[in-house]
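for the record, two folds in this file. i put them one after another cuz i was lazy. first one right below, seq on top, structure tokens after. the second one comes after a little note so u can tell where it starts
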Amino acid sequence: MAKAIRFDKTGGPEVMKWVDVEVGEPGAGEIRIRQTAVGLNYIDVYFRTGLYPLPLPGGLGMEAAGEVSAIGAGVTGLQVGDRVAYVARPPGAYAQERVLSAAQVIKVPDAVSDEQAASVMLQGLTAQYLLRRTYPVKAGDTILIQAAAGGVGLLVCQWAKALGATVIGTVGSDEKAAIAKAHGCDHPIVYTRENFTKRVREITNGAGVPVVYDSIGKDTFAASLDCLAPLGMFVSFGNASGPLPPIDSSEFAGRGSLFFTRPTLFTYIGKRSDYEAMAAELFDVLVSGKVKASINQRYALADVGQAHADLEGRRTTGSTVLLP
């Protein structure tokens, strides 16, 4: 028997239970993984609270890394002992062992640790599609990233800087401002005491930015739109403060023919070839040192309730890994 986190009702961190589970053998096209590190993401909170509905009882967790411990019939290109990582649905990564489709995993290069891989499969691939595909950032661009000291935020700051962009980022404290600045954020704005829309306009000499990457949602929606230049793009990739209000298209017309998109990672990695190419680019920037995985918190997987409480309380920075 292995251990895993399960929950049978939505609610606070206390609904998650550390229980015995039967893992079983992999079927055709499947592998079993002995997991060594699991990533923590805000989407896990959305599932736990019921904002994103799941069939219950169920598991949580979208990403992990570990070692292949068994292989089902028909699987090629993998063998027992290979190091792999994944971001996958349905949730269930909060576990010591797991069976899943071989098509959902990516081999991990020797130069990338299990903890690094587990911390970037969701957040790092999100940063990749935001910067390279949703709005392809180019040298000379000035961009705004909300929650710049968070897991995706720190990756976006570093990667955008490596692409030659000027990075403006919002943060909640001076401590987080210092962290963001150390990771490539040229202009951290402490939103608790500064009007970030006004500061963005000052920094850009009134022009605004061509793109805002916003994972905060309800609390920053209107102000984020006010930061955009005409024909700018508002990228809503999360809603930590709550869902966006009903969208009125005149909001985008009146501010200069703005674009709006609500991307999801699983659309971008829907084709195996895209998944592989995106992961390869992500691992390349990690190995090159242009982007570093900032793992600033580690918890035992059994203590995931505390990890969720700290995440929701905005007491974390960068990435968090759970250790089975």
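(here's the note) second protein begins now
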Amino acid sequence: MDLHLVTYFVAVVDHGGITKAAQSLYISQPSLSQAVRTLEKRLGVTLFDRTGRRLELTEAGRKLDVAARRILADVDRAKAKVDAVRELRAGRVDVVTYAAFSVDPVVNIVRLFRERFPRLSVRVVSADSPAGVLSALRSGDAEVGIMDSAAEHATFTAIPMAEQELVVAAPAALADGLPDPMPHSAVRSLPLVIDHSDPITASLLDGLLDDDGKNVVVDCQLPSAVWSLVKKGTGATVLPGTVADRQLAGLRRLALDPPLTRPWGLVLRSGLPSPAALAFISAAKVHCGIAPDPAEPRDW
């Protein structure tokens, strides 16, 4: 059933006839009469009793009147919700990432996003690897992914953002006498507590591991557990400098020589991003000091 036919029908009921209804709809009387006849033909019923001067609803017409008003109310509510999202008055963006980026840059981007767009919300989904990020995007469980820019992203749209500088964080007992900056070869003698499950990260850290990676004493995918183990003296770890400064402030922070960086970016499904996703992209660019595109929303 065409929505405009439903609208025309309700207008005729409300105005008690074709003439006034046509005037309110700014269409001709013949056009409105034809629309009502078309609706009756499609439904296979007579909607109006035309024997008197004023059109009266038949039993079928009264049933349609109830349903038609419900349809129009539902449409109005749906339009209001769409408008609210488009105008950033409501909505949610679903973001997926994995352990390597779960603190840096996710925390600061989400903080900026909420400061700039306080009426929008964020749902952060956990994946186990770059492949898991792409799988969540492909299935529709998330709209924006945060992952290593060096990882294969297939047909997805990638937006390079920035680089993490990785450093060594070690308890005093292990860090005593270590040079700063620290050559990669020197790290191989340290017991490490790291997440070695992601192939991209494992490849990046390969030069810091001894033969067969035997200096990896704990392989852990949980950042908070890694930090606790390092604080307890179980081993050193390799993590972004910004995370080391916040989460392991009491430990020695050693730069690497040569520097070790990990590029990251956003990955999107094909098609036009939602307004909330565009707002998240805008916040990510602000976090990285990148000028936003004109099409991206500004602060609310």
